[in-house]
Amino acid sequence: MGTSTSASAATSGTAAPDGAVVGAAESARQAAALLDRARELIRLADALLAPLPRLTATDAGVRGGRTDDDGGHADGALHDEDALVTCVEVAERIAAVASSAQRRASVAYRASRIAAQRAAGVAARDLGRGVAEEIALARRITPTAASNQIALGRVIVESLPCTESLLAAGEISAWAADEVAKAVITLSDADRARVDADLAPRLPEVTARRAGALARARAAELDQEAALARMRREVDQRAVTIRPVSDVLVRVSALLPTAQGVAVYAALDRTARGARAQGDERSRGQHMADTLFSRVTGLERVEHADVEVQLLMTDRALLGGGADTAWLDGHPLPAQIARHLVLGGEPGCAGAGAGAGAGAGADGDTDGGAGAATAGKDRDPVGGAGIPASSSCGTTTPPDVRRFIRRLYTDPDTGALRDADTRRRLFTGAVRSHVLLRDRHCRGPWCDGAIAHVHHVQGWAEGGDTTADNGVGTCARLNLAVEMPGWSTASEADGTLRITTPTGREHRSPPPPLRQPDAEPP
């Protein structure tokens, strides 16, 4: 979440006189003004289209395909269908043209910032730092995504003129242009130009994936060493990621070299098929998922896990049967499922609900409290109360695995995490834990990266304290970027983080509340 404001707004401009030499800054201003005018025109077109879905949805004749005796719609035609398809086509072309303008502006901005940093004496290893972060804020995407887009944009703008021209004309999509750029990124400029010229006539006629495949094939013909380098580069990107799918499921994805990925899948498949042949009632997919968990963790059930799980929930949800949404590693979780994780048992069973939580009340707060439940060997040194995990629904947790409740507090008006049981001078221990639990992910606007650093909002050198109020969780990229010349951070009264970039733009990111603010009394 985040908001942004610009130090100066684009104003309508006029074209430069014939033969006039317009400076780069003036060209940029005029381009921004024209794009702003284009945005207004698109907004007007969107306003004209807005009523159409509602009208067609309520018109039974059109919705049901019913026609009158003359072959027309029973209640009269509400629109020109060819015009609507034209709107779709033109909008797609506008998206491609806008993407081209965005890439060229991003590449130009990168060059300008690096020149300014070099003039300011920034070390060579730090040149370009902060560029992707500022572009990300402008585009409302993550810094990593912006960095990748800038890298591909440089390939397209600087070494693929034919592909760039097709994109600028709206003849191909940004996706297709990116696929070509990925395929030639390890080639020399000369070989990139050859691939670009060879493929240009075919690009408007093929899909984005096909465009990438053709580019890879031609690149391999021109430079096999570069093809091997590209393969090694792709292998270096192997990783494991996780993202939520629903309240109770996450998707853990492994990006592996082909041989390893096939071997993993084959082993899981073989085990599942063997189990089903012996009468296992689980589906093949269920058995593969269960086998993956047990082989990676060495455990048979998640209840046996002796690891810390950061589960953030209010005392009302834990002890009073409340419906306040809990948060597990930044993902929303229904209160009933959260109680199950903390207290043991299956959701809805006796021993997993509010009644089972009564025994934990010694550490519960009756108003505004919130618990960060942790399970495992990392016992809470401050105000922790152990809760035996048990169940009356057939699931038994080993006696040496316990749940612990760490006391935290939420603001009674806003629901924001306010304080922890102890304070320390350094971003370690309880203070660091407080910041991590409060922010949950990078506080940079539109960045949901994992917290790698706790950043001093007011720098230590400027007299800033190392307290929870003066600390925010950030990813590594943002923490390094805001230390570059021209960047600054400040905290507003409600805890909102304000980031100012070298161009003077301000971006705000409020702290995520643990729960929705209480409604004002009537």
Would you spell out the secondary-structure blueprint of this structure?
Layout: E1 3-5, H1 24-49, H2 51-58, H3 60-63, H4 81-119, H5 131-139, H6 143-159, H7 161-168, H8 174-184, H9 189-199, H10 208-222, H11 224-235, E2 239-244, E3 250-255, H12 258-277, H13 284-297, E4 311-314, H14 315-319, E5 326-328, E6 331-333, H15 335-343, E7 369-375, E8 385-388, E9 402-410, E10 417-420, H16 429-439, E11 453-456, E12 471-474, H17 476-481, E13 488-491, E14 497-500, E15 506-509
Antiparallel strand pairs: 1-15, 2-3, 4-5, 4-7, 5-6, 7-9, 8-9, 9-10, 11-12, 13-14, 14-15
Task: Give an overview of the whole structure.
The chain is an alpha+beta fold. Among the domains are: 84-236, no CATH class; 238-304, no CATH class; 305-343, no CATH class; 429-509, no CATH class. It has 17 helices and 15 strands. It has helices at 24-49, 51-58, 60-63, 81-119, 131-139, 143-159, 161-168, 174-184, 189-199, 208-222, 224-235, 258-277, 284-297, 315-319, 335-343, 429-439, 476-481; strands spanning 3-5, 239-244, 250-255, 311-314, 326-328, 331-333, 369-375, 385-388, 402-410, 417-420, 453-456, 471-474, 488-491, 497-500, 506-509. The strands form 4 sheets. Strands 4, 5, 6, 7, 8, 9 and 10 form a 7-stranded antiparallel sheet that branches. It has a 4-stranded antiparallel sheet with strand order 1-15-14-13, with no helix packed on it. Strand 9 (402-410) and strand 10 (417-420) form a beta hairpin. Helix 4 packs across helix 6 and helix 8 (174-184) packs parallel to helix 10. The longest helix is centred in the first third of the chain and has 39 residues, at 81-119. It is globular. The protein starts with a strand and ends in a 13-residue tail after the last strand. Residues 353-398, 493-522 are annotated as: Disordered. Residues 353-371 have a biased composition (Gly residues).
